[in-house]
Amino acid sequence: MNKTIRRASVLTLLLVFALLIRATWVQFYDGRALADSKDNRRNAIETYAGPLGNIVVAGRSVTGSAPTRNSDLAYKRTYEDGKRYAAVTGYASQAYAPTQLEGIYQDVLNGTDPRLKTVMDTVTGTRAEPGNVVTTIDPDVQKAGLDALGETKGAAVAIDPETGEILSVVSTPSYDPASLTDANTAGEAWEKLTSDPDKPLTNRALRQPLPPGSTFKLVVAAAALEDGLYGSVDEKTDSPDPYTLPGTATDLSNENPNAPCENATIRTGLQYSCNNVFAKMAVDLGQDKLRAMAEKFGFNDETQDVPVRAYTSVYPQDMNRSSTALTGIGQFDVTATPLQMAMVSAALANGGELVSPHMVSQVTDGGGDVLEDHSDPDTKRIVSSGTAEQLQSAMRTVVDDGTGSNAQIAGATVGGKTGTAQHGENNSKTPYAWFTSYAKSGSSDREVAVAVIVEQSDAARSEVSGNGLAAPVAKAMMEAALGG
Q1: CA geometry: angle at 446 spanning 442 and 447, to 5°?
Q2: What is the per-residue pLDDT across 238-249, written as a single tens digit (0 to 9) for each?
Q3: Treating both helix axes as pointing N-terminal to C-terminal, what angle do 338-349 and 217-227 enclose, rounded to 10 degrees?
Q4: Strands 75-79 vs 55-57: parallel, antiparallel or unpaired
Q5: pTM reported for the whole predicted model
Q6: Domains and CATH numbers, the chain
């Protein structure tokens, strides 16, 4: 063999060896990534080869599957009352990645979760029968919230304070997830939804924190009572009216200039939503104590899963005293989701204990056997039972004889707090209207906590208020939760 042939042979062997190394690398290292890639159509073909499992509300499936025509994707997802439950289910699409419960439990719903496999499935290599996701959603409360919000842009959350079960998650404007299920038509629907300035795909209830306005005064009051700054909700506070923001010449005004806010008690301060009382209280407490209380309620928690990951509600840090005063009335850089403000009311209604909110009670296999049970969630104490009872009482005053009168329900005990938060530079845009509340039935053991935000409505700017826009929505949901 001459030198040229030997060199060619060595080069050929090296190339074959390199090819074997590359093939091994792709198969064993890149293989899983390639198999899981969203661009791998085999995954979609496998997912939609048969009917999917279902998401269940009050014993009824609000999802389904239907056979397709002229497609290698044999089935597509269907929805019952899709717009009503979109903020809960999300969507499962042949063209786009699934969201909400459809995304979190996609392996259970498409039968690929290893917990679903039987011995026979393993032997035959077939896909297991899909499982189901059972929610805590109350269809009556969900419908009441969606109907009450109507054409406005807003959101609402309802929680059972005793169990932590989320009874309703509403975000408006809503959308029909069925419009995104079929790969042949999803593109047009996607373009329309994503170009809509009202952003219907955004889950405002869980994933859009905004300034909570005066509803945050409940957190400030809780901090003041727990710290011992004031002994009760009926003790006079040190609150000049007007209150000049520290280090500035700016006087903080109250919505009602005739309200008895000077040195008002916490009860009166909540009743008339006195800004001077809670701005001064925030400064007296200091940002560290106030942040600590906010964080006990759930602010600044980046891992808040219900099981959908909720965006973080924020209480800021490293502020001057003037900014701290503004946080006391739910402004400056304080933000909250409706879920977060519902958690505040739920903890106070439950004697100071917060039961972890969740909207899935069970995950089951196709035969109904339980894979996951969430009926015993974690509970943590936020404030003492005495503080909770005092704030419940003060919240009742807000509804019975204060700024939250539109939430009154015959035959029920209702407490709440209104809020109107500034929007835009120098409050140039329409303010946000908030209401957070709790209700307890006078004839049964039913109770509920609710938070509502109305971002935008047809109301004139002068008519935007928590009592005018948000409290009626909360009332409708509370009535539904208490049984009509």
Answers
A1: 95
A2: 999 999 999 999
A3: 40
A4: unpaired
A5: 0.90
A6: 207-365+374-481 (3.40.710.10)
